[in-house]
């Protein structure tokens, strides 16, 4: 029997967001008492909480989220343990060296810093360990298909460089993962990150899970 | 190599909805030209398009969508071919008889009527073949875990009876599936329907897929 591990942050009314992003709203539209059933209205950024970036997020001629082929969303993956990183530390190619044998097998890499524990404080959105420009370049050299992370975004300063470098090379970026401490060390598992089918859009919230064989 | 089949209807600005539901909106919040990146704002019902109902949709003390255990969302499933049904026809236990051997193995059942081809016309939302009260009772007797369908809802008239009967018995309901003609006949596959982690809510849009072994 397979084991399913949930790697998703919760979505709720008033959940904090990046300062420039649409506010999140999740409210009751009707109820058992009014229309006979409970039904909610969700308003969210396409990049809220646990979500996937498509190339269109930074590239006007890039692939949209509904164009991402699903075999790139169900992938073998490995966790990189980066929990020794301090706030504001760069994550560099040397930090990924212990996982290179898995990466050589074509696996996605999930960067585990533990930063998700800051959520839902606003401090979640700044000062996190970050993907250096050198690491973005290295991921592109390694031709990996996906980078996931428990930070809200890979890099708060050189965000344009890092996003464009990776998205432009066909790397999917999954941000805002949670509870990666539940994932095993030094073994491959299957990672599922299926975006909503949002036509001609830039990203999507997802329910991210891992399944251990 | 596994084969992934997408069973999801697209979501887009102004997509038609059930008349009493929140309108769907999917618009640009900012762009590469304004803030340096493209990002959208989505407003949707929790029951738009391809989506999952939790018991809380009809039962005030029922399980919420974020409480549904994920091993009930990744399940063995079989397609029931109901494409011979005409508009307004009931779907009865006798129609499911050819699939009883799969159901006996604990599989979810996906009802394929072909009605999804009406979308995005408003005629999609009424006059569809429907899950009869007898069939809802039969699903409960069979103790199945999930019923999926390509209609917008199981029953337009006895909607309260059918929903409460099934949801109250712990059956997950997945509505608004699409393109089930792509699924194989008379064989089990794995069906993935992972809801967003919407805290204490009634349902969620999903990206529904099947994976063939």
Largest interface: A-B, 57 and 57 residues
Number of domains of chain A: 1
Largest sheet properties of chain A: 9 strands, mixed
User: What spatial order of strands do you see in the largest sheet of chain A?
Assistant: 1-13-11-5-7-9-10-4-12
Report the mean per-residue pLDDT of chain A as an integer: 97
Number of helical regions of chain A: 4
What do we call the CATH topology of chain A?
Glucose Oxidase, domain 1
What does this structure look like?
The structure is a homodimer of 213-residue chains. In chain A, strand 2 and strand 3 form a beta hairpin. Chain A is globular. Chain A starts with a strand and ends with a strand. With 213 residues, the first copy, chain A, is an alpha/beta fold. Chain A has a 9-stranded mixed beta sheet, covered by helices on one side. In chain A, strands 2-3 form a two-stranded antiparallel sheet. Chain A has a two-stranded parallel ribbon with strand order 6-8. The first copy, chain A, contains 4 helices and 13 strands.
In brief:
The structure is a homodimer of 213-residue chains. With 213 residues, chain A is an alpha/beta fold.
Topology:
2 copies of one chain form a homodimer.
Chain A: E1 3-6, E2 25-30, E3 39-45, E4 51-53, E5 74-81, E6 90-91, H1 93-96, H2 100-103, E7 108-112, E8 130-131, H3 133-141, E9 146-149, H4 159-168, E10 172-175, E11 189-193, E12 203-205, E13 208-212
Parallel strand pairs in A: 5-7, 6-8, 7-9, 9-10
Antiparallel strand pairs in A: 1-13, 2-3, 4-10, 4-12, 5-11, 11-13
Helix pairs in contact in A: 3-4
């Amino acid at each position: 029997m397979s084991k399913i591990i949930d790697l998703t942050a919760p979505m709720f009314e008033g959940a904090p967001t990046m300062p420039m992003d649409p506010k999140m709203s999740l409210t009751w539209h009707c109820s058992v008492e009014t229309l006979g059933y409970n039904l909610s209205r969700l308003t969210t950024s396409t990049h809220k909480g646990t979500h996937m970036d498509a190339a269109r997020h930074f590239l006007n001629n890039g692939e949209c989220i509904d164009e991402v082929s699903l075999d790139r969303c169900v992938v073998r993956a490995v966790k990189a343990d980066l929990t020794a990183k301090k706030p504001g530390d760069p994550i560099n190619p040397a930090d990924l060296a212990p996982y290179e044998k898995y990466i050589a097998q074509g696996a996605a890499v999930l960067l585990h810093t533990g930063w998700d524990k800051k959520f839902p404080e606003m401090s979640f959105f700044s000062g996190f360990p970050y993907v250096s420009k050198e690491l973005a370049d290295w991921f592109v050299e390694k031709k990996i298909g996906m980078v996931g992370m428990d930070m809200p975004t890979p890099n708060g300063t050189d965000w344009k460089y890092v996003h464009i470098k990776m998205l432009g090379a066909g790397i999917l970026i999954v941000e805002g993962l949670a509870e990666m401490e539940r994932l095993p060390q030094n073994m491959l598992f299957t990672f599922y990150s299926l975006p909503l089918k949002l036509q001609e859009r830039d990203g999507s919230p997802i329910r991210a899970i891992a399944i251990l064989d």
